[in-house]
Amino acid sequence: MERDIYTPPGGPPQSGxxxxxxxxxxxxxxxxxxxxxxxxxxxxxxxxxxxxDMEEASKKSAKFFVQVLGGPPLYVxxxxxxxxxxxxLPFEIDEKARQEWLKCFERVLENAETKxxxxxQHLQGFKDFLxxxxxxxxxxx
Length: 141
Hints:
This protein has helices at 21-25, 27-42, 54-68, 74-79, 84-88, 95-109, 112-115, 123-137. It has 141 residues and is mainly α. The protein has eight helices and no strands.
């Protein structure tokens, strides 16, 4: 049976986080931050939306974030164009799942300046990006 695909109003996010973050934070810290996110997601009610190998999934996601935060195009090199909405369409993502994902990321970002050397001047902009980006991934009303 064909499912109805919800499209959020307003389209994809028009701006990303600061591209200075990569240089200030470093690749290793981005990978660590995403590994911690996937460890949070593993304990969450939305665990079933993710692959069985959460560590491998975290690396794929980290490659995307390295690129978005101003680093080399690791994601494109290994996986092709991001097309994140299209890649997420096979998974039914509703607002409740989005909010859970954001809560997990919020927990990971607590003390991010210390844990990941996240530049504090860019933290709110990054959170704003996560809010807007995750809204675009919602595909079920």
